[in-house]
Amino acid sequence: MELKEKLNILADSAKYDASCSSSGSMRKGEIGSAHISGICHSFSADGRCISLLKILLTNVCIFDCKYCLNRRSNNIKRAMFTPEEICTITLNFYKRNYIEGLFLSSGIIKSPDYTMEQIIKTVELLRYKYHFGGYIHAKAIPGANMYLLKKLGSLVDRMSANVELPTEDGLKLLAPDKSSDKVSKIMQYVKNSQNKNFVPAGQSTQMIIGASRETDLDIMQKAEDMYQNYKLKRVFYSAYIPVNQDKCLPSLITPPLKRENRLYETDWLLRYYGFKVSDLLDDDNPNLNILVDPKASWALKHLDEFPKEINKASYQDLLRVPGIGVKSAKRIIKSRQYFRLEFKDLKRMGVVLKRSKYFITCNGKFDLNKEFLKKEFIEANLVLGEKANSSSNIYQLELFHE
Amino acid sequence: MNNSYEYDASFLGLLSLIKYLLKGKIKPYNIIKDDYQVDLFTNIIKVKVTKDEKVMDFFVSRFGSQTMHYVYYVFLSSYPNKEIVIYYYLLNYLKYGPKVIYKRDLKCVRKVLELNKKVGNEAHKLKGFVRFRELKSGILYAEINPDNDILELLAKHFMNRLKNEYWVIKDVRRKIICIYDTKKIYVTEEDNLKIIDEVSKNEIMFKDMWQDFYHTIAIKMRKNDRCRLNFMPKKYWPYIVEMEDER
Ligand code: SF4
Question: I need a labelling partner for A350 at 20 to 30 A (CA). Which of A14, A334, B87, B111 fits?
């Protein structure tokens, strides 16, 4: 098979993994270096950042996960790269500045150990034979021997093992060959070994959204648990794309993109805004509001805690105001040491007054008539404001953070 | 009459002039490059200032390296009155010290921040969007057409990652090129280098594979043109090889 055809098959099979970030490493080599905040080299027609050459070593797989294109029972064209072939493509793409590095994943061929050995062989060639210093993200294969994990971790910038589904029941139904124990074991090991020479950019994982019955509460509790216990750098949420027909799977016409977006927003609140899952979701409200973002939704339920006075409120309190982000909260804190802030200053600091005006005062004054401070009115306006803004999506956040 | 002061278009030239103005407590109406079109009411003053490398040391010791970084990025921007912004920013620095950058009520501070963001963003974007092609000679060659003068910032970036390669980047708008010979960077006018723009044997093959990859990796059910345009504005497309058939 020609190299070009292999690439087409093995890129097509890899594209459902959401992660493409290339940040968090400062590696240098004879050819290539990593950039601490990551670099997007292109954007595909779906608006996603292309940073890494995202491919599978092979799409042959002995497992039969219901939601996956590469599952054993699918009748599709199969291919496998040799390690040298992957090096050739990576280095030539890198030289032309098409990519920031490689994201190598794989179906499970023969056994987890064998698959892992092939991945290691490839990465070793890149690092030792070609002295490649660009970014490498590799998948750790659940069930593989720990010494292989140790070896791979010392070669790559990021490692990930996907939990795929947040509950054991979900896994049993859709990925009967997988177990969450094996994934947890990898995460535990990486967490304990991580340092600047071992997976310097940290580990990440992915959950599929909407293929099983789990609620947003299930998903976010799992995420919170992993952030806390395994110090994950990122959890990715990937709206289920129906590639297979199966009686266990929902028949979707469009992927649940809005839900995915809300989960990312919630994730953001956990990581940067000091929220806990229990602030946002509980057994009575196990799913996020699709109409307004989770922070606004929280604020609407806690109107008695507002307004916050811009010239006095603590950093943590500012972060709870819809329309005020991490950057603008920091700016407010800094600037008010030098002068008293007025509403006109807030705009310059990136505060979205259209959203925040219901929740803040400046020097004791509101920026609107008090009669507009009714819950229903605020909610309606926040929902409307969001519609007008619908082009802004999660990838926007993606660029400037991490 | 409005007194405008002329400088030689170089960064050191500008700093030398500003040093002279600040020392003499002179408030210029504007500071302009030698080819700037002026109106009838403008009086152009040319002062002989000694331009030397030491002027940079003077500014760094007086204003700190962070301030000079801000000022340099303003200088790289395409904003027509960037020189006077720099002058007022430094003048206010003398009054307020390092905290001046937080005084967003000052117009020059807002402009400095805005231009820094613009230049920084474009440089960062282009670190990703630059596309090299391999010429017959083995040299990697790229063309760019940025709004701001960021060639040097890019060159420093690629010096790090492609340090054993020969490469050339041409800014087609400013007609300058940057050459790297595995040791040093040279910046010069485009006429000083004849580029034989014939590509290597492998070039077509890898370009082809990349274009295929670009189309394959998109998930059809998630198609989102608006989002893509947001991140990769059309103005960059002519130099991005995978956009060839969508231009
Ligand atoms: S293990 Fe499951 S998800 Fe992974 S490639 Fe095989 S079938 Fe697909």
Answer: B87
- Specify whether B156 is located in the same domain as B139: yes
Answer yes or no: do B147 and B230 share one domain: yes
Pocket of ligand 1 (CB under 6 A): A 61, 63, 65, 68, 70-71, 107-108, 175
pLDDT score, position B1 = 63
Question: Which of B105, B206, B230 lies closest to A93 in CB terms?
Answer: B206
Instruction: List the alpha helices (DSSP H) in B146-245.
Output: 151-161, 203-217, 225-231
Enclosing domain of residue A327 = 294-389
Distances in whole angstroms, Cα of residue A322 to Cα of each of A39, A121, A292, B178: 29, 49, 11, 46
Retrieve residue A73's tokens: 């029972």
Which residues on chain B are in Cβ contact (under 8 Å) with A42? 128-129, 214, 232, 240, 242
How far is the alpha carbon of A303 from chain B, nearest alpha carbon, in Å? Answer: 31
> What ipTM is given for this predicted complex?
0.92
Q: Are residues B153 and B227 in the same domain?
A: yes
End residue of a domain, out of B73, B101, B121: B121
Residues A11, A87: one domain? yes
Q: How many CB pairs under 8 A join A and B?
A: 150
Same domain, B142 and B190: yes
Cβ atoms of A310 and A320 within 8 Å: the answer is no
Residue B65: give the domain boundaries. 2-121
Q: What residues of A are in contact with residue B227 (Cβ under 8 Å)?
A: 43, 46-47, 391, 393, 395
- pLDDT interval class at A368 (50, 70, 90): confident
Last-in-domain residue among B79, B102, B121:
B121
Distance A76 CA to ligand 1 centre (A): 14
All residues of chain A having their beta carbon less than 8 Å from the beta carbon of residue B206 are 89, 92-93, 96
- Within an 8 Å CB–CB cutoff, is residue B133 touching chain A? yes
Q: CB–CB of A323/A355 below 8 Å?
A: yes
Residue A33: closest CA among chain B residues belongs to which residue?
Answer: B161
d(CA A266, CA B108): 37
How remote is the C-alpha of B144 from its chain's centroid?
A: 11
More confident of the two residues A178 and A371: A178
- Whether A287 is in a domain gets the answer no
Residues of chain B falling short of pLDDT 50: none
Q: How many domains, in total, are found in chain B? A: 2
Cα(A279)–Cα(B72) distance, rounded to whole angstroms?
45
Query: What does the alpha-carbon distance between residue A372 and residue A374 come to, in Å, rounded to a whole number?
Result: 6
Does B121 lie at the interface with A, CB-CB under 8 angstroms?
no
- pLDDT tens-place string over residues A312-360: 999 999 999 999 999 999 999 998 888 899 998 898 888 999 889 999 9
Give the dihedral of Cα atoms A237, A242, A245, A246; nearest 10 deg: 20
Could you tell me which residues come within 8 angstroms of residue B164 by beta carbon, excluding any fewer than 6 positions away? Answer: A30, A31, B182
B163 and A30 within 8 Å at the Cβ level: the answer is yes
- Which of A31, A97, A335 is nearest residue B130 as measured by Cβ atoms? A97
Any residues with CB less than 8 A from the CB of B216 and at least 6 apart, and which?
A8, A11, A12, A15
Q: Which of A218, A247, A280 is the last residue of a domain?
A: A280
Ligand 1 atom closest to the Cα of residue A72 is: 7
Residues of B in contact with A338 (CB under 8 A): 99, 102-103
Q: Is B245 on the interface with A (CB under 8 A)?
A: no
How many domains are contained in chain A? 2
Q: Which among B133, B134, B217 is the nearest to A15, CB-wise?
A: B217
